[in-house]
């Protein structure tokens, strides 16, 4: 299987350490590195830096928030990164959530899928070298009533892949219809149709199949003999996703777990988290909400689990490894996990 890793926040990981880990990952055969963007650091700067210090690994934004930039600025940033990485850049986009969009960026969160669709359409125009003339519900170029005119970006056309990080059914359908790749989270190969059914429906509506989409799924990976301890160590992260990654009304991670059959658990954990009972929220996470959404256990268990992801149709895993380790330990952990990966069918 193809493998990707995430670039950690430099607030929590020293920058030379990030570089060493990515460089070693490249040598081990990791094909992608994704930089995140939440509310602490941007998804762009690290990729520009790493572009000069790596040779083969594909560098992607995982993800740029569409609310943080205009579509034209996103296009210019993508073209710049494509230049700086010698064509290794992948543009990963997502809508984020209302707490970040409205609270941090001061933008309206209304109709996020429509905004995402319009953004992608403008980006495709820009990458094709067309004049940016667009009349959408949320983006109008040039701005009417002013002195602006439709402009073409001063850059040769480029075919930059666009991957979308989506979780809701309609957003997944759009991803299946329009994107080059999917950046999946809260995915379980045991409940794969909770995501893949919607991706497939969208793909078929556009005359495509799932084989036309690069399907990446995040996978929490922990290898060891004390399986229960490994599971316990992951409960807090699940509780955080259920309670903190969105508002009580809008939490796509929580909704994804509900679609996988964990409605009562997801709601109970969310309620405890919102009430400030963080420890109780983590304790409320059942084993299955950890083990069904990752590869946890002995080496043999993890090897078999990777095959389940492959057989479910996932062709690339984004490994979520233990980050609270020394650089040497993280690299050794990654090397061990790489040896457990199966061949793609």
Summarize the structure.
The protein has 345 residues and is α/β, with parallel strands linked by helices. The protein has helices spanning 15-28, 45-51, 71-84, 98-103, 112-127, 169-178, 193-205, 227-243, 252-259, 263-274, 278-283, 288-291, 299-311, 327-338; strands at 2-7, 32-35, 58-61, 64-65, 89-94, 134-135, 140-141, 162-164, 181-184, 214-223, 294-297, 316-320.
Describe this structure in words.
With 345 residues, the protein is α/β, with parallel strands linked by helices. The chain has a domain at 1-165: Alpha-Beta Barrel (TIM Barrel), CATH 3.20.20. The protein is 44% helix and 15% strand. It is built from 14 helices and 12 strands. The strands form 2 sheets. An 8-stranded parallel beta barrel has the order 1-2-3-5-8-9-10-12, surrounded by 6 helices. The radius of gyration is 20 Å and the shape is globular. The model has no long low-confidence stretch (mean pLDDT 94).
Percent strand? 15-25%
CATH topology term of the domain at 1-165: TIM Barrel
Low-confidence segments, given as residue ranges, are none
Helical residue percent band: 40-55%
- Give me the side-by-side strand order of the main sheet: 1-2-3-5-8-9-10-12
Kindly report how far apart the N and C termini lie. 9 Å
The chain-level mean pLDDT equals 94
Name the CATH class of the domain at 1-165. Alpha Beta
What would CATH call the architecture of the domain at 1-165? Alpha-Beta Barrel
Give the helices and strands as they follow along the chain. Answer: EHEHEEHEHHEEEHEHEHHHHHEHEH
The total strand number stands at 12
Radius of gyration: 20 Å
| Largest sheet, strands/sense/barrel | 8 strands, parallel, barrel
**Helical segment tally?**
14
Judged by helices, strands and strand pairing, the structural class is alpha/beta
CATH level-four homologous superfamily name of the domain at 1-165: Luciferase-like domain
């Amino acid at each position: 299987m193809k493998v990707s890793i995430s670039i950690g926040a430099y607030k929590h990981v020293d920058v030379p350490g990030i570089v060493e880990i990515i460089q070693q990952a490249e040598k081990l055969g990791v094909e992608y590195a994704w930089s995140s963007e939440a509310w602490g650091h941007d998804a762009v700067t690290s990729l520009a830096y790493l572009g000069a210090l790596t040779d083969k690994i594909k560098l992607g934004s995982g993800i740029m928030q569409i609310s943080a930039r205009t579509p034209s600025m996103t296009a210019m940033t993508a073209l710049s990164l494509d230049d700086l990485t010698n064509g290794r850049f992948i543009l990963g986009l997502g809508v984020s959530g209302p707490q970040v969009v409205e609270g941090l960026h001061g933008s309206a969160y209304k109709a996020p899928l429509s905004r995402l669709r319009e953004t992608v359409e403008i980006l495709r125009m820009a990458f094709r070298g067309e004049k940016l003339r667009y009349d959408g519900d949320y983006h109008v170029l040039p701005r009417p009533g002013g002195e602006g005119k439709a402009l073409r970006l001063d850059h040769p056309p480029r075919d930059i892949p666009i991957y979308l990080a989506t979780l809701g059914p309609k957003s997944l359908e759009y991803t299946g219809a329009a994107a080059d790749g999917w950046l999946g989270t809260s995915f379980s190969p045991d409940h794969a149709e909770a995501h893949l059914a919607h991706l497939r429906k969208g793909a078929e509506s556009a005359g495509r199949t799932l084989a036309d989409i690069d399907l990446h799924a995040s996978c929490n990976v922990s290898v060891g003999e004390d399986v229960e301890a490994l599971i316990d160590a992951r409960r807090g992260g699940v509780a955080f996703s259920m309670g903190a990654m969105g508002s009580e009304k809008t939490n796509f991670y929580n909704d994804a777990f509900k679609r996988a059959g964990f409605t009562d658990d997801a709601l109970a954990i969310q309620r405890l988290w919102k009430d400030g009972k963080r420890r109780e929220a983590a304790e409320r996470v059942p084993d299955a909400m950890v083990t069904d959404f990752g590869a946890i256990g002995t080496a043999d268990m993890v090897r078999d689990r990777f095959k389940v992801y492959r057989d479910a149709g996932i062709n690339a895993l984004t490994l979520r490894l233990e980050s609270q380790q020394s650089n040497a330990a993280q690299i050794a952990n990654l090397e061990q996990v790489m040896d457990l990966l199966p061949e793609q069918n």
